[in-house]
Amino acid sequence: MAEEQERRPAGELEASVLAALWAAETPLTPGEVQRALADDLARTTVTTILTRLHAKGTVTRDRAGRGYAYRPAQDSHGLTARRMHAELDKDEDRGTVLARFVSELSTDDERMLRALLDGGADSGTEGGSGDDRGGTDR
Q1: Which pLDDT score is estimated for 6?
Q2: Are 68 and 55 spatial neighbours (Cβ–Cβ below 8 Å)?
Q3: pLDDT tens for residues 12-60?
Q4: How many CA atoms lie within 13 A of 137 on its CB side?
Q5: From the CB of residue 68, how many other CB atoms can be counted at a distance below 10 Å?
């Protein structure tokens, strides 16, 4: 029972592994990821997480000796966008999902989205922080 209390959710472990990969300048083996995490995770646990991330397409891998070295398939922004698409794809009524999403945007985020849709590709990387979470003042 004590083991269950200490167990972290898989999403948290995956996020930690991804953070280690993003921080690295080169692909990492499971042992290198384990050392980068400075955690008490077993190498087999790290390998399992990397294998699952590879199956999801979140990381890529290349042969490194008898094993693999892993690198992120995308940066953190690309991964977030991919997750947003995956959530959108889960619902048959995309219009309603998008309408509800847009209705809950902050004023700054709405402005940024409008600029992006109008062809301002760089609009998403500069400007407001998006912390204005009003969403109801439209």
Answers
A1: 65
A2: no
A3: 899 999 999 999 989 999 999 999 998 788 999 999 999 999 999 999 9
A4: 7
A5: 19
Q: Quick one: average pLDDT of 114-126?
A: 71
Which 3-state string (H, E, C) describes the chain? CHHHHHCCCHHHHHHHHHHHHHHCCCCECHHHHHHHHCCCCCHHHHHHHHHHHHHHCCEEEEEECCEEEEEECCCHHHHHHHHHHHHHHCCCCHHHHHHHHHHCCCHHHHHHHHHHHCCCHHHHHCCCCCCCCCCCCC
- Could you tell me which residues are beta bridge partners of residue 69? 62
Residues 69-103 pLDDT 10s: 999 999 989 988 988 888 899 999 999 999 999 99
| Partner residues linked to 67 by β-bridges | 64
AA letter at 82: R
